[in-house]
Amino acid sequence: MTKKDIIRLLEDIATYLELNLENGFRVSAYRKAAAALERDQRSLSEIESFSDIKGIGKGTREVIEEYIEAGESSLLNELKEETPVGLTYMTKIPGLGAKRVAKIYKTTGISTLDELENFLREGKLQKLPGFGKKTEENILNGLLELSDVKRYPINTVIHISETIEEFLNNLDYIETFDIAGSARRLAETSGDIDFIVKTNEAEQFIKDIETASFFKSFIAKGEKKTSIMYEEGLTKIQVDFRLVSGDEYYSTLQHFTGSKEHNVRLRQIAKERNEKINEYGVEHDGEVITFKSEAEFYNHFDLPFYPPAMRENGSEIDIDISNIVTLDDIKGDIHMHTTYSDGAYNIREMVEACIERGYEYIVITDHSKNLSVANGLSDERLLKQIEEIRKINDEYNEIDVYAGTEMDILADGTLDYSDDILKELDYVIASIHSNFNQTAEEIMHRLKSAMENPYVRHIAHPTGRLIGRREGYKVDIEALLKLAKETNTILEVNANPQRLDLSSDVIYGKDVMLTVNTDAHHIDHLEFMKYGIATLQKGLINKAQVLNTKTRKEFKQFIEDGK
């Protein structure tokens, strides 16, 4: 449990109280307590008493203490029992906050998304006090947009996949399973999800899948393929289960992982050898050859194993991939946050989590003062943090801990800290967090101003996009890449699956220096590195192009040399 978990608890309670039309002062008390915890720069392990934190009263303190002791909140559980689950889904619709949802429910009794959609289509919402025709149209459009998604972003697909995997792991008659298709290739979006399942109990599987919490309906039922509609709130997506029982498993997995272009190129190679590839194996002289792993499948054609993320357009088969970056090449993470700003863990806890991952160096990069919503650091707080990082670094022999910042590039192109402050840091990241609606010229002016600064070493999430949620600001990509070379500034591939920014299509085949980082706000986020590596592999980026593949000694020299 972390401070972030408690903040989320308090915010959830406030939302449920709103849904139940509770007194506004009570709702405000939980929101104020959450904000107070967010501002406090200590981690949960450092907080001895919640009574000492201004903004946390007796009632909220007792809720927090119960949650820490019991691992759950009786108040939140009680509120959830009293609240139809459909109301929480409604709050995700643009234009419908908890207060409005509560008013609709109290007036009409509507508690499901289907009921709400029918109500909106019949034009009845505009007749309620506080709702007009335009509001009704906007809410209906928002609902339809959320419920009629054709392709889901990778972050949603990861959640869906993990939910299904948890279910499959509890079926003891399944020998093994793997995700396949675009989801296994870690594509930015997926229209459906494929699983390869090895079992001799197809009939039992069909019975059991119908009992899953996410099961909506069958699309197809069969011994070799069963398809269902997955539903969780506003998320609805087709999931195909390919059922196999023999030695064809890895051929089936390779086949349905794709991509189509990758497999076409493999079939061309097979044809040159008078062989044929299908989902059951490789046909040779009237026999079908099967394999004990995907690596063995590729070795059959004298090819290296291609990571699923790299299997995109077929061109990867015709190049030497021996120097393409892998997860094992990463020696450190140089973009992460702590409780000094909006992270869940303190500096020492982040350091020790990175030591467990075998990292040789890290850079602590909390937000700068302009990002007040993320508890950004004032000049004084940053200088205090630098001092603390220096002391902690002296305590550890197995890792180097550097003092950095993720500094805002302001709307007019000025930077959030003066050069006098920046020169005290080991490493400076600059990024844009505001005024996304500016023109391309204005955005490029901001980026250029930062990249020309002698202390700015890299630009974080350079386009500002959030996959499936936000396009990002207007960036002249070619000019950005050119400017990065001219100013010796490194561009980031942000590994958070909501970002993957820069994207693989932007960096594909480009001769530019990059860094891949998790932007971790929680120790669990350090796991995101694999998604950033997948993006680099799709872009066919070599190890030598990635800053944090440098050894500890090399990175230290890089820091000391300056920009």
TrEMBL record:
Requisite cofactors: Mg(2+)
Keyword Metal-binding: no
Presence of the UniProt keyword Zinc in the record: no
Domain Polymerase/histidinol phosphatase N-terminal residues, every copy: 332-411
A GO CC annotation given for this chain: cytosol
Residues forming coiled coils: none
Record's keyword terms, sorted: DNA replication, DNA synthesis, DNA-directed DNA polymerase, Nucleotidyltransferase, Transferase
Domain DNA-directed DNA polymerase X: 1-312
MF-aspect GO terms: DNA binding; DNA-directed DNA polymerase activity; phosphoric ester hydrolase activity; zinc ion binding
E.C. code: 2.7.7.7
Pfam hit, one: HHH_8
Domain named Helix-hairpin-helix DNA-binding motif class: residues: 48-67, 88-107, 123-142
GO biological process, one term: DNA repair
Reactions mediated catalytically: DNA(n) + a 2'-deoxyribonucleoside 5'-triphosphate = DNA(n+1) + diphosphate
Protein name stated in the entry: DNA-directed DNA polymerase
Species for this entry: Nosocomiicoccus ampullae
